[in-house]
Structure formats: structure tokens, C-alpha cells
Amino acid sequence: LDWPYHGASALLPSYRPTKIEPHESSSTSIVIAATVNRTWVGDHRPGDFPPDVTNQIVVGLMASTSIFGNDNPNLYVYYTSDGGKRKRCFNFLCHGFVQTSSKIALGTSFINGGSSITYGGVPYVAMSIHKVPGQQQWWVSVNDTVIGYFPHTLFPTFFPESYVNQLGGIVHNSRPNGVHTDTVMGNGRTPESGGSAMIKAYLAVGANGMDKKDVSIKPGATVPKCYDAAVLGENPEVPGYDIAYGGPGGSGCDQ
């Protein structure tokens, strides 16, 4: 929470979920978000959590048979300018993201050799959302390839920097048969059980466009009985922090 940020980068693990319910999704992502309350910005200091996250941009890997027709980890982007209340723009389903490279397409599956980065036998994909000093748009990079950008004009309320960088997993829970889904997050293991999925080498992007280590990282989970997260500390091999996350889901989450 050492804001303001001009983006975030990390290595995201590429897992195919061992269990995913129809019409649901399991994703691993980088989220940057900003408040539209400019008065709050002037009255608060880094470390304070903003009163809203109205403007958001997301890049990550998502498995969803209903969206992609397979359960592979597929590249996706997303943005909202109203906190996701009405405006929820996924890939090219509505106007927004401008693709500038033909090397990596949205929807690309990163499995079975789709990534050249491997740790412990797990393939990883390097991703970032960042601003270039002197420019207003938000750029997206995948495996060191700039694939496109989100124009600043997509956001009716100014989005010059972010105040929240969030990394981890998200499961869409449709509550099949009236109980909590058993769609897994990550590799289906929680950080407490050991051997869970890990996001590696998280770095924030400073206002000068340079990478920086975030000084305050707070783990959080909405259903910690079945999905959880933990900050593991600095990565000994590459700059940045490692974050463990994931879990099996299941009806026990409701108990």
C-alpha cells in the first residue's frame, strides 16, 4: 500500500484447475484500482486504504469453459469505470482495450509449453500493467511483449495512478445445487496446507515508471475456510515479493 502506483508486475502461475463447475471461472490476476475521491487523496498518506475502487484494470489467466470453451488458463484483460456495478468490460466483448501486437492474442492458452518461465515444474507468465512517464494510457505487457493499452478516455473520472495493487485468485461462485462451489482456486491447495499456488516477484511501478518493492502487503480472503492467501516475503531469485494463494472450495465453506 505504498501508493501512488503507476502499475504492477508479477509472474503468474499457469494452472489448469482440477475442478471447475460449468458457467464458473477460476482466475489468477493482477488488479490495479483507484478511488475517484480526489479529496481523500490529498488528506491521506500511503498505507491508507481508499474509500472506493471505482476505476479498475485487470490482466491475468482465467479458466472458464463457458467463456473460452476449455478449462485452460487463458489470457484475459478487464476494466471497469464504476466498480463493476454496470460497466464490466472483458476482453473485446465491449469497447475498451486496444491491441497493438499480433504476437500474443487475448484468449491465448498458456499451458503445455505456452510459457518459457518455469519454477518447480510450474509454468509462469510474466505480466504487467503500467504507465509510461508522460503518457496517460495504461499499457499491458505479457512475457515482455507489450500487447496493447487501455485509453485514459475510458474512465469518466480521472485515473492517473492506482491506490490498490491486488494480486491473487478469484473464483466465480454460482452456488451449484445451493451450496458453495467446489471450483478450485490456483492448484486447489491453501497456503496453510503447503504446496499452494504462488505468484512470484510482485513489484509495484513507481510514479517515475521504475519498479519498486511495495513496503506494505496485506493478505486478504473473502472465504478463508476454503480459499486463502499469505505473503511469503521477498523472492530469493528475482526482485519482488512472493504471494501464496488458493484452495479447494467445497460445501464446507458454508459451515
Automatic annotation (TrEMBL):
Residues of the signal peptide: none
Every Neprosin PEP catalytic domain range: 1-254
Database matches in Pfam families: Neprosin
PROSITE patterns: NEPROSIN_PEP_CD
Family annotation (PANTHER family): OS06G0144400 PROTEIN, PROTEIN, PUTATIVE (DUF239)-RELATED-RELATED
Name of the protein this chain belongs to: Neprosin PEP catalytic domain-containing protein
Source organism (scientific name): Eragrostis curvula
